């Protein structure tokens, strides 16, 4: 059921030139793009993006950005951890990356990105800001900023937080850019180094976008996306009509959980004729019965880093209406207005639905899954796969 793994390493290394698009992105990376699309771009050019680091906060993955870093090319891609969309591009080593703007290039080992060079290429702008504590002067253009370190002996050039433009020191030299930030300018925020970096927001989704569209689950065993209800028992034709062509169709070879079902005496080695429709771009799998061709299960993926399926699916922004389920599980908890989402932790789920007992251990083996096992907790019609950090990896909706 897994999408083929995208390879993030290559075989060669060399200087690259990327188009700089203020307020929009750099090279093939566009602000607002989902992290899976960024990995797809990396996969298409493995000889260019030959060394790729993925950084995230394992214990609290929603607390800090998910970062894709290209150390050989000197830039980061920062993704909002909630939406998993690109919010900020940082060029942290301008000498390693050459940027093309219009018909000119700047940066790289041969073209220093000095203050004068930046001012000449991008034109006049308003005076920037000087961070006395960091000794950094930041120059802003719409959706673009350049940070320049100011030697301590020349801090008088930036008195009162401003400087004469273009900035040149008394000895005739001019500062060289130490960091470039590319961000969405629609909010009017100025983004730079330090705390100013946190002001970068993901751009609004375009009208009609399906990404991050909420998926709803309810007690009558229905599944709703984009206002369209897809019930259990629906046919493949019904699903095509509502969701469009699936990204892939996967034959389920073995039902590994059938041994836990008292109503199904088949041995677990029995070949299974059931099949999945995989909607990787929606974070959804739909399982059909191989004989009746009716829906049996919905599987929703959160796409958290640190899970074996990370980057196989885009994040599914699901909402489980707990008022529909709580009465069946936990009569003592007043959760009539509670909901469970892709950002909920397992402890929050238990507070709403109650304790369901011990978990089944799920693992794909240490060779194929370096992140270790996960835990599967089952309720009537619902199963939660939980990571070691307490966050939900998948939710499965089925008929008891």
UniProtKB/TrEMBL annotation:
Superkingdom of this protein's organism: Eukaryota
InterPro entries according to UniProt: PHAF1 (IPR005373), PHAF1/BROMI (IPR039156)
UniProt keyword terms in alphabetical order: Membrane, Transmembrane, Transmembrane helix
Listed transmembrane segments: 101-122
Homology family: Belongs to the PHAF1 family.
Protein name: PHAF1 protein At3g51130 isoform X2
Organism whose genome encodes this protein: Nicotiana tabacum
């Amino acid at each position: 059921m897994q999408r083929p793994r995208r390879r993030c390493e290559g075989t060669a290394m060399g200087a690259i030139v990327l188009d700089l698009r203020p307020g929009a992105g750099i090279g093939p990376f566009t602000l607002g793009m989902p992290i899976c699309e960024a990995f797809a771009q990396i996969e298409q050019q493995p000889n260019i993006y030959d060394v790729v680091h993925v950084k995230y906060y394992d214990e609290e993955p929603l607390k800090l950005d998910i970062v894709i870093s290209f150390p050989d090319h000197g830039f980061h891609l920062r993704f909002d951890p909630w939406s998993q969309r690109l919010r900020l591009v940082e060029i942290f080593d301008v000498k390693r990356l050459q940027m093309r703007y219009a018909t000119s290039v700047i940066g790289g080992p041969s073209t220093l990105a000095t203050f004068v060079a930046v001012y000449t290429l991008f034109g006049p702008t308003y005076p920037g800001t000087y961070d006395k504590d960091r000794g950094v002067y930041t120059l802003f253009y719409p959706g673009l900023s350049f940070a320049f370190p100011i030697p301590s002996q020349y801090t008088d050039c930036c008195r009162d937080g401003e400087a004469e433009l273009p900035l040149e020191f008394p000895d005739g030299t001019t500062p060289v850019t130490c960091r470039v930030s590319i961000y969405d300018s629609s909010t009017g925020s100025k983004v730079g180094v330090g705390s100013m970096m946190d002001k970068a927001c993901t751009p609004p989704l375009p009208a009609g976008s399906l990404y991050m569209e909420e998926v709803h689950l309810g007690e009558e065993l229905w599944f709703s996306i984009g206002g369209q209800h897809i019930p259990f028992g629906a046919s493949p034709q019904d699903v095509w009509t509502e969701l469009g062509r699936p990204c892939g169709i996967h034959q389920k070879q073995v039902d590994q959980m059938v041994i836990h079902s008292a109503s199904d005496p088949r041995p677990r080695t029995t070949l299974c004729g059931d099949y999945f429709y995989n909607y990787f771009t929606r974070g959804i799998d739909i399982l059909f019965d191989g004989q009746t061709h009716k829906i049996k299960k919905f599987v929703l993926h959160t796409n958290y880093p640190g899970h074996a399926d990370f980057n196989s699916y885009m994040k599914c922004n699901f909402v489980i209406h707990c008022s529909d389920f709580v009465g069946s599980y936990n009569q003592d908890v007043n959760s009539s207005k509670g909901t469970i989402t892709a950002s909920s932790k397992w402890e929050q789920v238990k507070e709403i639905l109650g304790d369901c007992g011990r978990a089944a251990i799920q693992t794909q083996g240490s060779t194929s899954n370096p992140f270790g096992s996960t835990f599967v907790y089952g309720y009537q019609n619902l199963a939660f796969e939980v990571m070691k950090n307490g966050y939900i990896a998948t939710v499965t909706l089925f008929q008891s």
